[in-house]
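S1.2 Input.
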Amino acid sequence: MDATTNLILSWKAKFGGNASQMKVLLFSPHTNEDEFFAAMRAFPQVEFDIARKADELLPKLPGAEMLITANRVYDAQAAGLIREHGGALKWIQFTTSGIDKAAANGFPRGVIVTNLAGLRAFAVAEHALYLMLALARNARRSMDAFARRDWARDDLSAGMDNLSGRHLVIVGIGAIGQDIARKAKAFDMRVTGISRSAAKPAHFDAVLPRSELRAAARKADYLVVAALADDTTQQIVSRDVIEALPARAFVVNIARGSLIDEPALIEALEARKFAGAGLDVQAVEPLPPDHKLWRLDNVVLTPHTAGAGSQGTGTTHASLVAANIKRWLAGEKLDKIVIERTN
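S1.3 Output.
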């Protein structure tokens, strides 16, 4: 029996039955359980349980007032079980920023939905810069030469560029977009944001409305997609925007695959209409082995790992969730509400 199970059993023994103010179910297999339940020791009046896979939801959902979960595991099977057996649920807390997959699979009616938007913004921004540098510095060809033990200095140098002095256009200026801009300024880049908001945050030289994205793309050296995925951003990087890119430009997507017209992107990459793309997300994930993107030599692919890495800034999933549970128990407004009440 592991430490987490022992902790849950001790909670039930001490605070079970009517003594509990609420029951909370954790269904987020990629969460560090030791760290999470250490933070939850602050709530002895709360009964915690854990489901490590969708099959375990059925016996544990009844009576649960709060569900803690992640976008990536909220698939059709889990969603069906949660809707059918989560009748007591009042609140779903996501440990991720995105909830698009979960929303597509459906929530139970009448629950509040919160997320952890911005928690891993620093990591996603780093990944955007990594993809930009990989494209600018010819990383794929360098690694190919390395594998051949080929000291291809002259050949590789001729195809390399720098970020310094280049024009970066960022679609979406939320927490991730703003951190990309801040980091890009360390590389002496000129930064333009595309946003619904007219406000100009720090580190942006200009902010333009979405209606001017195509015009901004014409002048971009790097077009980075960092906007939230919703109905208003579906294929915001359209065929028209892609066709407006100059031959020197690179496209980087660390948001969601749905934000780009992928067939138009692939056509333009195959025809070398612009320089290349760095893609952490795709329209279909996992990317099928026979997908065209695998075969393009002007593309750098990563498997939706932009948010991965160390703790970094010191703020953890557990500490933010614990802070929200504290608010809930005190009758205060929750932080980072995405949906006030589901339909």
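S1.4 Remarks. The radius of gyration is 23 Å.
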